[in-house]
Amino acid sequence: MDYQKDIAEILHHVLEDELSVDEIINLLEKPKSDDHGDLAFPAFQLAKVFRKAPQEIAGNLADQIEDPLIDRVQAVGPYLNFFLNRKTVGQAVVQEVLAAGSAFGEQNIGGNENVILDMSSPNIAKPMSMGHLRSTVIGNALANIYQKISFNPVKINYLGDWGTQFGKLICAYKKWGDPEKVRENPIQELNELYVHFHEAAEEEPELEDEGREWFRRLENGDEEAIELWQWFREESLKEFNKVYDRLEITFDSFNGEAYYNDKMDEVVQLIDDKNLLKEDQGAQVVYLDDYDLNPALIKKQDGATLYMTRDVTAAINRYNKFEFNRALYVVGQDQNYHFQQLQAVLKEMGYDWADEVLHIAFGLISIDGEKMSTRRGKVVLLNDVLDEAVNKAYEQISQKNPDLDNKEVVSEEVGVGAVIFNDLHNERTNNFDFDLDEIVKFEGETGPYVQYSRARAMSMLRKADDQGIDYKDTGIYNLSDDYSWRIIKYLHEFPSVIVSAYEKNEPSIVARHAVRLASAFNQFYANVRVLDESEERPARLALVHALTIVLKESLRLLGVSSPDKM
Ligand code: ARG
């Protein structure tokens, strides 16, 4: 049910078509205080039409409205306040959630069209950063949200696996590398080789030429160069996959920058055919003056291609392959300028879909440097960060529920879930500090808090089942107290929460709603004796049942699991 729409239809009817249902929906407000009812309609706009004061119109309307959905309507000044019938609405909402199960909230907005998510995209031979983690979890949540409303998400991990740095890395490896060490500790070792190359090149500038030469060989398909590059790539992927496995995130493609190596010539030619390729100090550029942007660099003086060249190529290639409805690039906001340029180049080339090439930017995470990095030497491996989160989760679970079976499994779900949830609960563009102790807590606006609330609800249902209490009949809904009503309203809101998260590409809208729902449940739990024998007991349990479904689905959309016991 959608009571907002139902009320709008009732109003539309008494207004004799003065305003359309959609116009009324847009005007309806959620009053700040419960004293003003559940929905409020401001009558200002009608003053002109009816040539009366809004106060008078509100008063007249109030007298005309009667419906089983509505308990009472009150005119307060120019506002019309609706108090809904809590039993009728509550019954409809609970029934709908229980009938739909995890499908509750599904809607057809996307018409099965493809949406590309360019996400995660770490650089091989380097540690995956907290920024890549953000990209991974935001991209994954958006993919789930788009899928929920009938888009077909395509998750692409655009690995940073090409560029002059790999020539340097190969060069460094040839000089100082040890295959054993690389196999043992690929990221750490390769990263060190690369750093060492730069230090050495300060003394010995010829090294730069050697590095360039190796990259040239790589680009031209030299066997030895390709073999080493492939090996580095594989070892790096193994390391990245450890993190993806724990996050339970999969990709539809790992076509990274290298994939476009042999596809760039054609695109550069295309740019030239459109008369857009201009020479600027020996380099090839596309001028973007009309967009107030600096020229986009397509080829360097020495003919080498760039990050931009590959991104233009990838975008065109992806459009030809997927005819995407939109392409979302989930990348830190420090690359804002790059994506403005990318879109502008595509526009200059005359692609009307360029408007749907969107940079989904996010803020930076800073970790408490001392706590996280120094202990382990130079690089912070995300896998270690997850380990630490899981250990902290384990400590808490052991305290709260020492007898719990499979504590290890649950701790993994809670620890990893805590990291993901924290990331998504923060508004996308915010910068924030990463404080492991805080985010793994069972209280506050955390993932474990939401998981724990649901687990408590599940335990209540298990007890009811054990006692043979029947709450599966949804015809029994008879609750009108404030605690139950608050839960009903949040359940009712869930489908529209998904839509706003989609419209703003903002998973935090789902995460915040989940926290509100969990906290509404905790107040209910603290004030209502659910399992005590009463006329309301079956309805209360049905409400709790509906709540567990929506909490689980919210967490699923965010990519967080829901342990039944914790
Ligand atoms: N590998 C890049 C980095 O770590 C991110 C790639 C983002 N995606 C893209 N299509 N440019 O900075």
From TrEMBL:
Biological processes, Gene Ontology terms: arginyl-tRNA aminoacylation
EC numbers: 6.1.1.19
Span of domain Arginyl tRNA synthetase N-terminal: 5-84
Locus of motif 'HIGH' region: 122-132
Reactions accelerated catalytically: tRNA(Arg) + L-arginine + ATP = L-arginyl-tRNA(Arg) + AMP + diphosphate
InterPro entries attached to this UniProt entry: Arg-tRNA-ligase (IPR001278), Arg-tRNA-synth_N (IPR005148), Arg-tRNA-synth_N_sf (IPR036695), ArgRS_core (IPR035684), DALR_anticod-bd (IPR008909), Rossmann-like_a/b/a_fold (IPR014729), tRNAsynth_Ia_anticodon-bd (IPR009080)
Keyword entries, A-Z: Aminoacyl-tRNA synthetase, ATP-binding, Cytoplasm, Ligase, Nucleotide-binding, Protein biosynthesis
MF GO annotations: arginine-tRNA ligase activity; ATP binding
GO cellular component: cytoplasm
Keyword Electron transport: no
Top-rank EC class of the record's enzyme: ligase
Domain of life according to the entry: Bacteria
Subunit structure: Monomer.
Family: Belongs to the class-I aminoacyl-tRNA synthetase family.
The protein's name in its UniProt record: Arginine--tRNA ligase
Classification of source organism: Bacteria, Bacillati, Bacillota, Bacilli, Lactobacillales
